[in-house]
Each structure stands twice: as structure tokens, then as C-alpha cells.
Design a protein that fits this description.
With 168 residues, this protein is an alpha/beta fold. Helix content is 43%, strand content 10%. It contains 6 helices and 6 strands. It has helices at residues 2-10, 28-41, 60-73, 108-125, 136-148, 158-162, and strands at residues 17-18, 47-49, 76-79, 94-96, 99-100, 130-131. The strands form 2 sheets. A 4-stranded parallel β-sheet has the order 1-2-3-4. A two-stranded parallel ribbon has the order 5-6. Strand 2 (47-49), helix 3 (60-73) and strand 3 (76-79) form a beta-alpha-beta unit. The relative contact order is 0.15. The model is unreliable at 164-168 (pLDDT under 50).
């Protein structure tokens, strides 16, 4: 995982770490251990992304601890569609994902159609965050869409949108 993230960063793409499950009844120390492990796996990450089933939302003490740690690293906190959204709290920028593009490991053509929809939403709302995995079809779809349709939009990495500014 670390090598893949390094190669994507070298190619100019941003990477984020996806939060993993925490033990039942997790406390701050459990979260600290988990964050350290996630950061070792993806040291180039600009953000911590909640999984589809959140591990921090609704758990105020853990979320506060995570935000403190993320702020110290200059990272952002990102929620899945329907999450708490793009409210900044303290020193931690937040963003809400409009759509995860490749939950079914879709082909490149499906990715490009979904990006068209995200572009429509961005034009309407001012900005839209999308997420995709580093599957070859996903990257191919993004690359094809950016070459043909990307000029219509001000494409920017997540860090530019939320001001995280971390470029490991």
C-alpha cells in the first residue's frame, strides 16, 4: 500500500488514508494507535477519510482526538456522502464527498459519466468533492475525463479545495 501511494504521489495525484475499524468501546489511546498505523500505511496522505460506515462520527471524544492529531499533521477530515459535511472545526479542514465513483469497480466509461454528473453539481454548488480508488479503470476514467471535459472546470486536488496544504 505504501509503495502504491508513493507512486501515485510521484505522478502528481493526492492520496488519503481510509479510517479502519476501531475496537468496540475504543478510547483515545486506541485511536492514537490506529492513526499511527494508518499513517504508516499511507504516509503521503493529505486527509483521513471516513469509511462508508463511519468510525468517528457520532463519537465526539474520538472525533475530537482525531481532529487534534490531524491538525498536528496538517491533514483534513473527510466524510462520505451523507456525513457531517464540510464544516471546519478548530484547525482541521473538513470536506464532504459528493460521490464515491467506483464502489463497484466500474469501468472507465462509467467513471467518466459519473464525473460528468459531479461537474454539473460543481457548476451548481461552486465545488464538489469526488473520491475514487486507485483501480486502473478508475484512474483511466479520470484521466480520459480530465483530457476531454476537465477544461470546463477548475480541477483541483482536495488539499487546494479545503486548504489542507499538506504535500508529502
Amino acid at each position: 500500500m505504501t509503495e502504491a501511494a508513493e507512486s501515485y504521489r510521484a505522478a502528481g495525484l493526492e492520496v488519503a488514508m481510509l479510517a479502519g475499524p476501531l475496537p468496540a468501546g475504543a478510547v483515545a489511546q486506541d485511536l492514537e494507535v490506529a492513526l499511527a498505523a494508518w499513517q504508516r500505511a499511507v504516509p503521503q496522505a493529505v486527509a483521513l477519510v471516513e469509511p462508508e460506515t463511519p468510525v468517528l462520527q457520532g463519537k465526539a471524544p474520538l472525533l475530537a482526538q482525531a481532529e487534534k492529531a490531524l491538525a498536528a499533521e496538517g491533514m483534513a477530515y473527510v466524510t462520505q456522502p451523507g456525513g457531517i459535511g464540510a464544516r471546519a472545526t478548530g484547525d482541521v479542514p473538513r470536506a464532504g464527498i459528493f460521490r464515491v465513483l467506483d464502489t463497484r469497480r466500474d469501468k472507465a466509461a462509467v467513471i467518466t459519466r459519473t464525473l460528468d454528473r459531479a461537474g454539473f453539481e460543481a457548476a451548481r454548488d461552486g465545488a464538489t468533492v469526488v473520491m475514487l480508488s486507485a483501480w486502473p479503470e478508475s484512474v483511466a476514467g479520470l484521466t480520459a475525463w480530465a483530457a476531454e471535459e476537465g477544461a470546463k472546470y477548475n480541477l483541483a486536488p482536495l488539499s487546494a479545495l479545503i486548504g489542507a496544504g499538506k504535500a508529502k
